[in-house]
């Protein structure tokens, strides 16, 4: 049967846009169906606005704390709506890159509408029946709203509303201390809001290296952010215009609540049953080739669960593109997936944690940890907290790395490059410019030799004897 399209993509965010633009540039016939506007969470409610807000908040913090460098100013006058204006300006500057005009210019047919599958090979939208050789579901995720009595009635914000507010809440209760809660919590606090994080786990950022997360936690405490640990938000009531939020035996009164307690896949409206596509609460079920349970329908990005990051959505998009347009031979490779949480200090990670490495390789695991307090450039910039930790095997194979400190999200890439190219940790100990923050990597890398030397009694004795002999000549 002849079909109209090579590929129909549903969802025009980080994953869908990569598939659409690359497929069109390869001269495939492409339709992209988007229910709202192109750009997805990353542009409108995620990475772009959050990183812009983080930057404005960092400036406020630096001005407020400039005194320790001998720079004295009047107390910073924070104009919240102008800070939010910066956020909107950055979105506006990036948006043309994701505009329908740009994609149509590349040859993509952009269809705005909310459709659904009518059978295993047809997607119905705006009264049209789209048939294609392959489909890609890239509909992303939305905030999971916990069923907390009174929350709905009292009202709350999620990442979908918070970047549009123009008045600063005096106080903000945040449910969930994952990356969203932590990045936005610190930013709002720095812009003058009293922030309380409610965290169901014993420590914030529970998916990260615990020692690294502890550095962030200590920074939050030093800045005056309240953290209620190991406690779930349980009930909300409206009292005198304020929201009264119960967490365990504690009660906090706040102006606003931000819900950042995880994500749910956008799958419900697509009539996936008709297409033979299975899913659960984490997302679409996909195989290593990113085929759903219908092999002609692929999934990528947040909607398949897993690593929910923009760069992972793009990485998955490439596998989907190759398999869907040509032959389904490519398997997704998740061996080296880096990410960063853009708190201050930043926390970046790639590969295994210490615990995971020890579970897999037992005694053959070396932890190479270098504090930023031993990196002269960090000290020059007033930083004496944080560290770089590289996890290796005895043969130098890099298993993972965890950096917490200034520009950690940039510094991790040297290790990512090494891992991607199967370089040993010694490759990181080459000349690094003095004084730079990236010396944290070279200094950590050198520790493998030092640790192995410290363990090697025979070599130490041989050298001692050698030098004794040389002195006796
Ligand atoms: C506050 C926040 C900060 C973040 N910061 C970072 C960061 O710094 N770095 C990072 O890597 N990641 C970050 N992320 C995660 C990142 O935004 C997501 O992983 C990424 O956007 C996922 O891309 P996607 O293509 O799967 O989904 P999206 O980009 O969300 O795109 C999905 C698209 O599908 C559309 N859609 C949904 N349902 C339908 C339907 N039925 N029919 C048609 N279209 C539909 C949506 O409108 C949307 O345009 C952040 C997320 C949040 C919430
Ligand atoms: N810098 C980045 O790359 C970045 C930034 C923000 C978000 N993201 C992506 O978005 C995803 C979602 O972020 P998130 O922070 O919403 O989710 P998350 O799942 O990472 O963290 C949510 C936290 O909320 C806690 N929680 C759940 N219900 C609770 C309750 N009732 N009371 C108190 N705590 C509760 C959970 O235990 C968890 O620790 C991330 O996993 C990440 O993939 C990435």
From TrEMBL:
Residues the entry annotates as binding FAD: 51, 115, 139-141, 302
One Pfam assignment: Pyr_redox_2
Assigned keywords, A-Z: Disulfide bond, FAD, Flavoprotein, NAD, NADP, Nucleotide-binding, Oxidoreductase, Redox-active center
An MF annotation (GO) of this entry: NAD(P)H dehydrogenase (quinone) activity
Cofactors required: FAD
Annotated ranges, domain FAD/NAD(P)-binding: 5-317
Domain Pyridine nucleotide-disulphide oxidoreductase dimerisation: start-end pairs: 337-443
Cystine crosslinks: 42-47
Cofactor note: Binds 1 FAD per subunit.
InterPro entries noted in UniProt: FAD/NAD-bd_sf, FAD/NAD-binding_dom, FAD/NAD-linked_Rdtase_dimer_sf, Pyr_nuc-diS_OxRdtase, Pyr_nucl-diS_OxRdtase_dimer, Pyr_OxRdtase_I_AS
Gene3D superfamilies to which the protein is assigned, alphabetical: 3.30.390.30, FAD/NAD(P)-binding domain
Binding annotation for NAD(+): 176-183, 262
Annotated PANTHER family: MERCURIC REDUCTASE
Family: Belongs to the class-I pyridine nucleotide-disulfide oxidoreductase family.
Protein's recorded name: Pyridine nucleotide-disulfide oxidoreductase
Source species: Aphanothece sacrum FPU1
């Amino acid at each position: 049967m002849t079909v109209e399209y090579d590929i129909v993509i549903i969802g025009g965010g980080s994953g869908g846009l990569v598939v659409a633009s690359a497929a069109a540039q390869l001269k495939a016939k492409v339709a992209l169906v988007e229910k709202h506007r192109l750009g997805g969470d990353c542009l409108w409610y995620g990475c772009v606005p959050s990183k812009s807000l983080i930057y404005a908040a960092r400036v406020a913090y630096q001005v407020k704390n400039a005194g320790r460098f001998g720079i004295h100013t009047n107390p910073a006058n924070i104009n919240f709506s102008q800070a939010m204006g910066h956020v909107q300006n950055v979105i506006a500057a990036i948006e043309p890159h994701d505009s329908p005009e740009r994609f149509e210019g590349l040859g993509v047919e952009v269809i705005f509408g909310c459709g659904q599958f009518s059978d295993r090979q047809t997607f119905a939208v705006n009264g049209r029946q789209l048939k294609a050789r392959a489909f890609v579901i890239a509909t992303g995720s939305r905030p999971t709203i916990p069923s907390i009595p009174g929350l709905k009635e009292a009202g709350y914000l999620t990442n979908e509303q918070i970047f549009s507010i123009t008045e600063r809440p005096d106080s903000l209760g945040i449910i969930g201390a994952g990356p969203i809660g932590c990045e936005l919590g610190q930013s709002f606090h720095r812009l003058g809001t009293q922030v309380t994080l409610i965290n169901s786990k014993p420590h914030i950022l529970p998916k990260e290296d615990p020692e690294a997360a502890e550095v962030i936690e200590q920074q939050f405490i030093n800045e005056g952010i309240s953290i209620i640990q190991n406690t779930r938000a349980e009930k909300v009531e409206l009292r005198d215009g304020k929201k009264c939020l119960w967490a365990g035996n504690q009660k906090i009164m706040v102006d606003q609540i931000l819900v950042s307690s995880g994500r749910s896949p956008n799958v419900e409206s697509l009539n996936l049953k008709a297409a033979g596509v299975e899913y659960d609460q984490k997302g679409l079920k996909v195989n290593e080739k990113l085929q759903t349970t219908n092999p002609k329908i692929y999934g990528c990005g947040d909607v398949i669960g897993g690593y929910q990051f923009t760069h992972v959505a793009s990485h998955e998009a490439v596998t989907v593109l190759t398999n869907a347009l040509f032959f389904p031979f490519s398997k997704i490779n998740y061996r080296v997936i880096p990410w960063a949480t853009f708190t201050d200090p930043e926390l970046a990670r790639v590969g295994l944690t210490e615990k995971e490495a020890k579970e897999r390789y037992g005694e053959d695991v070396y932890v190479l940890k270098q504090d930023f307090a031993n990196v002269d450039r960090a000290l020059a910039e007033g930083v004496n907290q944080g560290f770089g930790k590289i996890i290796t095997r005895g043969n130098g194979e890099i298993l993972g790395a965890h950096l917490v400190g200034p520009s950690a999200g940039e510094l991790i890439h040297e290790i990512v490059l090494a891992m991607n190219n199967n370089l040993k940790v010694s490759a990181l100990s080459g000349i690094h410019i003095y004084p730079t923050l990236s010396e944290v990597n070279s200094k950590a890398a050198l520790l493998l030799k030092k640790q192995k030397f410290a363990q090697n009694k025979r070599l130490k004795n041989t050298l001692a004897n050698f030098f004794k002999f040389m002195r006796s000549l």
